[in-house]
């Protein structure tokens, strides 16, 4: 039995998605509650590994139960019961939005054909308290048209090695395709939504951080573009805070050609 969950969380108090010593990660929290239902630990897999402080509006998760485990849980073999059962024990910062049975070969990470991330900025003198740890508060001059121009430049297929942090296990290829970046403004609120076939470690935060530095006049546009076109590591690239980043959803279906 392969169960697929759609979960959302406020990343402020979590140490990220991935399980680690000391717990207090989203994965550890989910697994602890599932273990109470199943009677033993079951490993859950997420569509992506969000850092500490990063939020998720739609993280896809899956886990597999053996025939013996399915027999043991009885009525919980009905996937519709999992939403209420899990949310009854999960902290309010973490919620299961949907639970369904998935095909045998479905894997939340490796079956994904892409992801959508959003980064929220607030360009104004005062950050509303409800946006504390929800958006990056920017002060002073900011060339918003420059952010739009750089966003268009980033669309398409590039080697994003210059906008990738080394987590100790880099993928074989750092080439990724960003299908679209949507920039929306409403007064001091600015949001950048990235839709792509995949994202490298801290890639979105580095892209936003780099664009903001150029828009603030702290870095030349040409240097940003050089980092994009050279496809090699760069020392100490700018990185936006985790607070403003949201995993909107993972995409599934046929891969785009």
The radius of gyration is: 20 Å
How much beta, percentage-wise? 25-35%
Question: How would a textbook summarize the main sheet?
Answer: 10 strands, mixed
What is the CATH class of the largest domain?
Alpha Beta
Helix segment tally:
6
Shape: globular
In the predicted model, the low-confidence regions spanning at least 5 consecutive residues are none
Query: What's the domain count?
Result: 2
Please report the distance between the alpha carbons of the first and last residues: 32 Å
Q: What is the H/E order? A: EHEEHHEEEHEEEHHE
Shape-level CATH architecture of the largest domain? 2-Layer Sandwich
Structural class: alpha+beta
What is the subunit arrangement here?
A: single chain
**By CATH's scheme, which homologous superfamily of the largest domain applies?**
Pseudouridine synthase I, catalytic domain, C-terminal subdomain
* CATH topology annotation of the largest domain: Alpha-Beta Plaits
Number of beta-strand segments: 10
- Provide the residue-averaged pLDDT: 94
Helix content: 10-25%
